[in-house]
Structure formats: structure tokens, C-alpha cells
What we know:
The chain is mainly beta. 2% of the residues lie in helices and 56% in strands. The protein contains two helices and 20 strands. The strands form two sheets. It has a 17-stranded antiparallel β-sheet, with no helix packed on it. The protein has a three-stranded antiparallel β-sheet with strand order 5-7-6, with no helix packed on it. A hairpin with a 2-residue loop joins strand 16 (325-341) and strand 17 (344-359).
Amino acid sequence: VLPSLGPQTAETLGPGLPGIDAWQAAPATLPLLGADGVYHQGDATLELSDALLPSPAGTNLRMTMGSFVLDRGDNGRFSLQLGHFWTAGDPISTTTYFGVNRQLYPSVQGRLFTSDLQNQTQTIAGARAFFHPLRGWDVTAELGRAWYDAGLVTYPGANRFGNYEHFSIARHWKNDTASLEYHRFDPTYATLIAPYGIPENVWSIAWSWPGVWLKSNYQLVDNSVIGANRAGFRFRYDHQGKVLEFHAAYGDWRQLVPETMANASQVGFVDGFFLLQKNAFATLGRDRQAALYLAWHLPQDDLAFDGVEDYLSRPADAGQQLDVVATRYPQAVLSWTHHFNKKLLAAGGYGRFAAIGTWAVTPVDGIYGVGFVGVEFATGPKTAFLVQARRYALVGAPSIPYGPPPTMRGSTLIVDQRIAL
């Protein structure tokens, strides 16, 4: 990940802090090792790919994929895609409950669990249509279906296909756009477990961050809005003015299927957030998110506020305190950027990230604050330099009964040079 002049909320609506033209953006894709072929004929494009994806030592993950796109310009864009993925090699330990060697760890965080998987296969088929029904209106429709199986599972044959649905309608004005979206993401859609990184990435506190796909896995499909086992709506409004920039969004998604021990034993069943419940005490959880980005653009300065608040909740039956989830995650970054010229700019500000509430029988109370100041400048036609200082602090209540509070303070100096080849 390339350093930037300051932090931002993980699910920001804004473009991030400005940078000079010579500073390259961080790559947004994973590296592949394989072959790719593209054929164009008029408005149509056919692409075929075969590649190895990143995977831990002793394992392999391979992908074959084909896509067909028909781009008719103002008359719409239509596409079909089919992908097949499979793993080979050693068994891997995962935070699923449908593999073999299942382990259950009741704790103050809830019922943690692991199982081993091997020789996974996943097939995903999808179709997309984007068109303009009326002047100033956009409509998007996306449908997908996925099939999953694995060689090591507790209940062979207990797999079922999963579906994906996404419908969006947007209204455009001169500098404004309003959109309403509906997503449905089944708990068995595109859930092949593809781990990467090191074990420290795999084991994290259950409430550590409301990421869509946790436990050191990446998903094979886009989960930037919602992940597995969710359905709901999101409204968004954008104003892109020369002086005032404004983005706001609100989303409300419900859990589709409770993560009971029986449901989680189904081959391919995944929920990215909630932990196991007993079969007789199933309840459904809920995700909500409110986000706001405001920026005031002056001739040589940018003032910006970047705020997101996530809410995660699940009720519990009487006597089932381990099932309780009632947390919120407020995040905010206030920044100022000054442009001296096209080759030099400076930025400073403050960010605050918090986790507040209750998870199972554990109080969640942590606040991380960071102040930052730095400069970014070009040192030559193909070279750029970044220097930034940060002062951070973490405070809060103990998450382990009678344990120490999560108190930490320190300073960081970031120095990075980029050379374009």
C-alpha cells in the first residue's frame, strides 16, 4: 500500500486527500500469474483468462474466466461473465463451520469456531445491464448465481447454490446525482475461502472492524457495499461543485439467514460478521451505515470532513447473552490541504476512530485518535517524495475482564520516495 498524506475512513464517500500528479495511486487489484486474451469486433468484446491467484505456501488457487461485453454507447452496456475457481494442496484452517475437524471455542466474544477445508471448487455466472430509460436517468441490473463444493466437509452433499441481486436507479442533474440501490447477497454466493497473509491477520477480535469480509480472506466478487448473507437498500446523494463538494449515503441491510449451528454446517455457508447461535434461539441481525463527506475547495486550499458511522446489532433471547451484538463504529477525519503549486502540497488534520457498545458479554470501548501533518513534492520529472509525521493515541476500557486497558501512545515518521520507470 502506498502511503498518502493522511488517513481516511475505510468506507469513505470522498476521493481522499489530494496529491501531486507525480504521486502514483496504490494498486486496487491483486497480481495474477497467467494468460489473458481479448478480442474486439465492433461493439462487442470477448475476454478469456486463465491465471493463478495469490495463495498460502503449499496451496494453489486457479481461475479460468470468460466475459462478453456489448457496449452500445448511449443505448446501454450489457455483459455476461462466467468464472470457475478451484484450490489444491494442503488443507487450510478457516473460520467456517462446514469443514472437517470442527472446533468450537465459547468465549467472552461469543462462540468462535474453525474447521479445515481442502480442494474447494467455485463456479460463478453473472449478467449485467446498464441503460438510460429516460434522459438524465440510469438503471443498473446485476444478477449472479454461484455453486460451491469442497473435498473436506462434515456433511457432503449439503451444498446449495447462492444468488446475487443488485438493482439501482439514479437521477442526474447538472452537478447532482441521487441514487437508490437494492442488494441481496445469499450466504452461499461466491464464498470460496481464499486466505492470504500471515496468521496474525486471521485471528482478530470479533468486533475489531465492521469489514465486509473478515479473517484474512478476500472474496471473488465485489463486496464493497455488502457481503454474504445480507439484503437491503442504500440511498446516496452526490453534489460535485467547483467550490462545494458534498456526498451523503444511508444504508440498511438485514441478515437473511441466522447463523445457527445447523445453518453454518451447510457447505459454503458464510456470514462475515455474526458468530454462532444455538439452533433453538436463532435471531436475525442488522447492519446500518450513515456517511457524509464535505469539502470546500478554494483556489489553493481544500478543507474536508470525512465521516462514516456503522451500526451492527443482533438481538438475543433471554439467557443467550453470548448472542448479543449492539455496537457502533464512528469514524471521522478533518483535513486541510494547501497547494503551493503543481509539484508541492502540504496537508494536516486529525482523525478519530472508535468502537463502542457490547459484543456478547464484553464491553466494547476503544478510541483511536491520530494527528498528522506532511508534505508531498516532486523532486524530478519521474521522482516524488513524501514526508509525514503522525501522533497517535489509543484509549478505552478493557475488553478482557479484569484485564489491562488498551492504552497506547506514540509517534510515527513516514518517509517515502517514488520513482516512475
